[in-house]
Amino acid sequence: MNFIALKILTGDRAKYLGLIFAIAFCTFLLENQTSIFASILKAHRQSDSRRDRCGRMVMDGKTEYFEQTKALKDTDLTRVGA
Question: Quick check: pTM over 0.85?
């Protein structure tokens, strides 16, 4: 049974090479997007402007969305960390 499946798969060389290329390209895209997502998470964890010394999230009171990045003064962070 496996021999028949392999024969059908490799019978048409153009389709076989196209299939191999498509699988390789999709794997590349998947790994590329995963690495981009991981680097975004890593950069987000390292953003010191939103965290105080204890690791709590600190934001401006007028922030409407989490994605808005407004730099806080160091005095604001020290006031919260006390």
Answer: no
